[in-house]
Amino acid sequence: MLPGVGGITYNVRVGDLASGWEADHVEPGVSLENKEKDERFPQGANIALNVLSCVGNKAVVATGDAKGDKGVITGNTEESNMY
Fold first, then answer.
1. 71 forms bridges with which residues in the sheet?
2. Measured in whole angstroms, how far is the alpha carbon of residue 16 from the centre of its chain?
3. Which class for 50: exposed (0-12), middle (13-18), buried (19 or more C-beta within 10 A)?
4. Pick from 77, 62, 64: which is nearest to 31 by CA?
5. Tell me: the pLDDT tens digits for 8-18?
6. Burial bucket for residue 18 (CB in 10 Å: 0-12, 13-18, 19+)
7. What are the distances in angstroms from CA 38 to CA 34, 52, 63?
8. Measured between alpha carbons, how far is residue 41 from residues 3, 33, 46, 48, 76 in Å?
9. Apex CA 35: angle with CA 25 and CA 9, to 5°?
10. Number of neighbouring beta carbons within 10 Å of residue 76
11. Cα–Cα distance for residue pair 17/76, rounded to 1 Å
């Protein structure tokens, strides 16, 4: 399986070389998507996440083994500019 969108890429970090990967595209670190659905606007929650998550914002892991770990948003998708 090749790396892509949605998940954790353990072996790619911000600042690594952009060439030499076998992938459609690689998103370093953690890539997320809000899959909460609303009948009136099915992608609303994910669009809100993309629009409100700005480069430089602090992030805290809320659940799982890494709960409480902190990071910083280092990039965003073009999707936030579509709406």
1. 59
2. 17
3. buried
4. 77
5. 777 778 888 87
6. exposed
7. 12, 18, 23
8. 29, 15, 10, 11, 21
9. 35
10. 15
11. 18
Terminal C-alpha separation, the chain: 31
Report which of 1, 5, 4 is spatially closest to residue 46, judged by C-alpha positions. Answer: 5
Which residue do the tokens 């459609």 mark? 24
Element (H, E) at 77: none
Asked if residues 49 and 30 have their Cβ atoms less than 8 Å apart, the reply is no
Element (H or E) spanning 30, and its range?
strand 29-31
Give the model confidence (pLDDT) of 29-82 as tens digits: 787 778 888 889 888 888 888 888 888 999 898 888 989 999 888 887 655 455
